[in-house]
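Exercise 7 asks you to align residues with tokens for two separate proteins.
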Amino acid sequence: MNRFSYHRADTVEDTIKLLSADPTARIIAGGTNLVDLMKYLVETPSTLIDVTRIDALKGITETEDGGLRIGALVSNSAVAYDERVQARFPLLASAILAGASPQLRNAATTGGNLNQRTRCYYFNDPATPCHKREPGSGCSAIVGLNRIHAILGASDQCIATHPSDMCVGLAALAAEVHVAGPGGERVIPFADYHRLPGDAPQQDNTLQQGEIVLAVVLPQGGQGYAGHYSYLKLRDRLSYAFALVSVAAALEMDGGTIASARIALGGVAHKPWRRQEAEAALSGRAAETSAFAAAADLLLEGAVGHEHNGFKIDLARRAVIRALAQAATGTPQSQTDKRIA
């Protein structure tokens, strides 16, 4: 691990000043991803800024329009087991409980989960070329072992995937990310927070220099999906593994007809993958397999496999159909008994 300075920030303003003064500085809270990356020498920050004492980043509170504001320091476990989240946004609780382990969820924070780095083998190995870790060096995954890599939204620079389960749920619920920086506060729609790799894969998100995540806000509109949802995660083992494919599916039902739909995919792209055309195609349709299959085809339009991950295209299609069927019948995938329902 490299040598670094340590600062404990007392306020958001202190954090912004420290981040603005040092482009290599990193925020630390739970440290469940950053500390590992520092041990691997993937991340070599000159400064760590401890934000765990900042009260403005803590707590889950009601918003004026009936949504929920989740502070950046709220642990994943605290979000998943909050009674308001479970009652009004159960899709998010389910997505969180599908990830990691209880010990990690107790330590990991909401802000940290948003900003975690890819688990691409090559990104995590400094001995191999990786555009994301070292721009201009090459992408080992494209010609290497790429079983876990992207089938959507990739570029010739990078085929890494975003590893979060929580973020897939947040994408489906159309959450907002509230941030602050030298220019003041701003709100980023969740769909715009994470980036596709393009020709700058080293940039995971749209945060600007000196900015910090304050909170994630769940809009009131997401509550309409509390009765018909499912988070389905397919992986190589039943627990403590990242998704090959995951699906956050949520429906508003009018009898046997779909009034509106939200679908997001994880494990398939550089960011949680959502396509509103696929959701619109379900509106007004009967909740049946043919409708689910048509939506899956729209969602996966343009998917491209590589040598080892072509199977993920059909796997994702089947997973979308299964998750939508679970949501339509109000029988969400259990995150305790992880066998596929």
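Second protein for Exercise 7:
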Amino acid sequence: MEIRLWEIARFLGCVIEGDGETLIRGVAPLDQAQADDLSFYTNRKYISRARLSKAAAFVVGADDREQFPGHPLLISDNPYRDFARVVDKWFNRPYRPAPGVHPTAIVGEGVQIAEGCSIGAYCVIENGATIKAHTVLFPFCYVGAKATLGEHCLLYPRVTLLERVSIGHRVILHSGVIIGGDGFGFAPDPQQGYFKVPQVGRVEIADDVEVQCNTAIDRGALGATRIGRGTKIDNLVQIGHNVEIGEHSIIVSQVGISGSTKIGNWVTLAGQVGLVGHIQVGDGAIVTAQSGVAKDVPPKAIVTGSPAQPMIENRRALAEMNRLSSLRKKVHELEQRLKALEQEKNE
């Protein structure tokens, strides 16, 4: 693949600074780029790497152009996104199997498989399932009875969709994802132990969602667990029954969301966040890594800590905690002085 820089600029709608005839044959990070690679720069923590980079050209923001004197540049209002667009258009060639149903696949009665689909080796598709056009199932996937998959979906090996799960269009599910398992519902019974509460609901996943490896999304106890359009979910996430997540939210690795909690649109839950059940997180809120959320989070709030609290309050509390040692020392000194004064008075 060979592209001139001006072609990339035209595709992105970016302004070029420098030689538009610069030839691009690859893409790479700053510290690995070679003389014919395109790279990008967004984080000033990596300025030393940028200055030493061998890349042919860079995608940068307007405020960072001075960091690259003499280098061809693409000036972008969102360098990370535009670099990703370049990779996707010219350098992203993932393997996709040819359409058709592999002879080892097991397809039940009443299954509807539309044109252009690829069903890999040893897949199992149960009775009444629907798979719409151009969807790909890699080997060893399981699609439960009456489940529905939209168009242009991609299921990597060993994805499990249990009965009546509904998946929208252009959804990507990575290996080990399990959607529609029972929620964790048990009613205590002093005589019998715990009585399993039947989980008779479903899961509904909207268009353009991506769920990465070994994440579990439980079906509703009653009603549905819902994942909104464009939401991205990282590896090793647990989403409990009847959770509702809005559109374009980011759920990072090892997050656990307890049942019936509602997450708004454009919310970010950073790594290892835990949320109790039956609370709400408002649109645009950010919960920082390893926070424990036990109550509602207002829209656009940034909360941190365990228990989670607004970031300003958390920092103030940490500052006070760091003063405890000096305060303890001062209190001890005052106690000694008071004791000495009392002794003098008694004498």
